[in-house]
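ok so i was messing around last nite and threw this chain in just to see what happens. nothing serious, just curious
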Amino acid sequence: MKKNIVIFTLTLFVEVALTIILASLFSVRFIELMFFTGIAFTAFTIWFSSSGGAMTRHIDSQTSAMTGIMMKREEFTLSPNYAVFASVTFLAIGLIFFVLLVTNIIPPA
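result:
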């Protein structure tokens, strides 16, 4: 349990740090960029937490074409872990801030 909390916290820390760096590079506020980096982080963690899918089918097809051996197809499975949960949490918080920015509840800079 303690390891999972460390993974969750470390993932959030890395995502916040990278978003702060990107916000300073693009000269925008952290909360303006948070939703979009949240989408990227969530896609990245889901990509590496899943198995099967389009890329696996492509590689299997290439291997079958080169060797002539039919490979068993691997179905797409998502294995959610605490890094994925942290990325989805970051995305959800970013979505809330994005909606507040678009509706002018949080004033523009």
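not much to say yet. The helical segments are 2-26, 30-49, 53-67, 82-102.
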